[in-house]
Design goal:
The complex is a heterodimer of chains A (452) and B (214). Chain A has 452 residues and is mainly alpha-helical. Chain A has one domain. Chain B has 2 domains: 99 residues, 2-Layer Sandwich (Alpha-Beta Plaits); 65 residues, no CATH class. Helices cover 42% and strands 12% of the residues of chain B. A 4-stranded antiparallel β-sheet of chain B has the order 2-3-1-4. In chain B, helix 4 packs antiparallel against helix 5. Classes of the chains: A mainly alpha (452), B alpha+beta (214). Chains A and B meet through helix 11 of A and loops of B.
């Protein structure tokens, strides 16, 4: 053991100098940065044929999705005219809100990864960016819904139909529940969502070409206020389009409830996309079982998060027993006959996936986790069915219109927006490199491992 | 199917050795080796000053087939589990057992209490499942947390009053800048001469015999 001279005078040359404390963070020099870029480019997983799909990849899939989506769309429109516009629009919205949830959740994860500088996620972030960047498709389809609602004077949004002074609960919620502000909010959602998602993808794409470190910092700064803007727009979007279907009902947890579905379904869809890419023999060594393990952990935690939010909301409404709130659940559980769906959500959205995703082997297996991803997307659709579908028949609609629609109208309505959205996602995924090429934290993602 | 990582049950000697750590009236089993002075031999330790050296040394000791040995470092070394050939812990299984006990116990307790002594509260149904959920969750988490903490301590052999390595002055540097590999004499492969030779061949700075207190 070295004996430090403790009683030596201050000017003693043998005295060990006290190291100066660094006042600023160490700065990566340009030379070190270029060396890092070279190391990343020379990594065996970053071969060109490993990180890009072949030219015609996904062509069959995207054509199929477009074909199915268009046929289903035609069927939905046909059903709206032949059977019932309310039923058709309700089914279409179930699919549309699921697709929007997947894109919105992806945008959240891109910003979350940027703002915490998540090194492990660099190789999977591009797919989140791709899924988020098709938010404009959701917004355009949502525009169709807004136009139908406004032109027809309220199909599913009952409050558009009822004139002022007739219902106290609507009057009390003025001017929030009015056509003008509704459209204004719809425009704001579009500006925020499309602005953020396109800008984040553009910054990442530009960094692929220039390798400019400042772009990563820009994305990081943008993610700070972007997360706040995302939280507000997502919450108000879900208030406007989902909660206000029953204008009597209100829940302060509603925005978080929709966000929980968004986060869960976006991780699921990215797992499915990455598994499909791995099936094509790409991204070997760039997206490994370690990344799938972490995505699986996110899936597990957001399964629990959804349960926590959904149960808390239900529990408080059940306990406090306020008529405006309980009507929403009473119709679904008792008079409307949606109790089987409630049980399906309890077990299918929590108990079963929780018990399956607990296993490390499931999270580390590409195929099993992708199967769970597909399942979680389906169960998210079931969650949207639980929210939207009873509203189609609420307020005595079923008694007034016996035998409206059929199961095929539900199927077509749900499938159509998801397939059209999927067409754009596949096109976006196949377009460019599958990972960011010159990300500042790429080297961390390439050697990522779970040391547990 | 991979085999579940369930360890072999300890032998009688191992149980006695463990018990004697905590209860002075339990006789310690006879040692396998003693020094010329008649002291018990705990094992052989090797001292390293570089992380890669101790990492590669661990790989060699693992490949030599030793099972009762340890690497002692001032900080966690990523991947040392693989280098030492440590199997995954059974703690998750224990935690699942704890969770199942907590959840099952909480549900059984509440349903039994509410059905055995029915009470109208706020006009809610008897034994409604909704108010049970928070208690079920809390009890599940509580028992799981206790199982994890106490199970981790038990699997690590903690707490213990003394460890033979602490009687060596040089070993105290393990909390500063030295790395140690210690092979215990209770290892079936242990042989005073050959184990020492192996550690010498690994490029250790210093190889020493570790004696145990009586």
């Amino acid at each position: 053991m070295s004996q430090a001279p403790t009683n030596a005078p201050a000017n003693d040359p043998t005295r060990t100098p006290i190291p100066q404390r660094a006042t600023t963070m160490p700065v990566l020099t340009d030379k070190a940065w270029r060396a890092r870029l070279d190391r990343i480019a020379a990594h065996p997983a970053m071969r060109k044929d490993n990180i890009t799909l072949p030219d015609n990849a996904g062509a069959t899939l995207s054509t199929g999705l477009l074909f199915v989506g268009l046929i289903a769309f035609v069927l939905t429109v046909l059903g709206a005219f032949v059977y019932d516009p309310r039923h058709a629009l309700g089914a279409f919205e179930i699919g549309l809100f699921t697709a929007t949830a997947m894109s919105l959740g992806s945008m959240f994860f891109v910003m979350a990864f940027h703002s915490v500088n998540a090194g492990w996620a660099s190789t999977v972030r591009r797919q989140f960016e791709n899924v988020a960047s098709v938010l404009w498709v959701c917004w355009v389809m949502l525009g169709g819904v807004v136009i139908i609602e406004l032109v027809s004077g309220g199909v599913l949004l009952e409050w558009l139909k009822i004139p002022a002074g007739e219902n106290h609960l609507i009057d009390a919620k003025q001017p929030f529940l009015s056509g003008g502000l509704f459209v204004a909010r719809y425009v704001v959602y579009g500006l925020v969502w499309i602005g953020i998602s396109q800008r984040l993808l553009a910054l990442s794409r530009k960094q692929d070409e220039t390798g400019d470190r400042a772009l990563g910092r820009k994305a990081r700064f943008m993610s700070g206020w972007g997360l706040l803007a995302f939280a507000l727009t997502t919450a108000f979007f879900s208030f406007d389009f989902l909660m206000s279907m029953d204008f009597r009902f209100f829940s302060t947890m509603w925005g978080v409830y929709y966000f929980a579905s968004a986060a869960l379904s976006s991780v699921s869809v990215v797992v499915v996309i990455l598994a499909a890419i791995r099936l094509k023999g790409r991204l070997t060594g760039a997206v490994t079982e370690e990344h799938f393990h972490d995505l699986g952990k996110l899936m597990l935690s957001f399964t629990v998060f959804w349960t926590y939010i959904a149960f808390s909301q239900y529990f408080l409404i059940w306990y406090s027993n306020i008529p405006e709130e309980t009507a929403w659940f009473v119709y679904r559980q008792q008079t409307g006959g949606y109790m089987p769906l409630f049980l399906i959500l309890c077990f299918g959205h929590f108990v079963v996936p929780f018990c399956i995703l607990l296993f490390r082997r499931v999270k580390r297996s590409t195929g099993l986790l992708a199967a769970m991803g597909v399942y979680m997307i389906l169960i998210t659709i079931a969650d949207m069915v639980w929210i939207v579908r009873p509203m189609v028949y609420a307020a005595g609609y079923a008694e007034a219109n016996p035998g409206v629609g059929g199961w095929w109208l539900d199927a077509a309505g749900i499938v159509s927006p998801i397939c059209l959205w999927g067409f754009f996602v596949v096109r976006q995924v196949t377009r460019g490199p599958l990972v960011p090429l010159k990300d500042p934290t790429m080297h961390e993602a390439l050697k990522h491992a779970n040391y547990v | 199917m991979p085999k579940l990582p369930i360890p072999k049950p300890p032998s009688r000697d191992e149980i006695m050795a463990l018990a004697s750590e905590y209860f002075p009236f339990v006789p310690r089993p006879r040692p396998r080796y003693v020094t010329r002075e008649g002291k018990r031999v705990y094992g052989v330790s090797a001292e390293f000053s570089k992380t890669p050296a101790v990492y590669h040394a661990a790989e060699k000791v693992r490949d030599a087939g030793y099972t009762r040995w340890d690497v002692l470092t001032p900080f966690p070394i990523h991947g040392i589990e693989q280098a030492m050939g440590i199997k995954r812990t059974i703690l998750p299984l224990l935690a699942f057992g704890g969770a199942a006990t907590g959840v099952g116990g909480a549900l059984a307790m509440q349903f039994w209490m509410n059905l055995d002594y029915e009470l109208v509260v706020q006009g809610k149904p008897y034994a409604a499942w909704e108010p049970f959920a928070p208690i079920t969750f809390e009890l599940g988490v509580l028992i799981t947390a206790f199982t994890c903490l106490l199970g981790m301590l038990a699997l690590n052999g903690l707490p213990r009053f003394h460890h033979p390595l602490f009687s060596k002055e040089r070993f105290l540097q393990v909390s500063d800048d030295r790395f140690f590999v210690c092979i215990e004499a209770s290892d079936p492969n242990f042989d005073p001469a050959r184990t020492r030779e192996l550690l010498d061949s690994l490029g250790a700075d210093r190889v020493e015999l570790v004696e145990d207190e009586d």
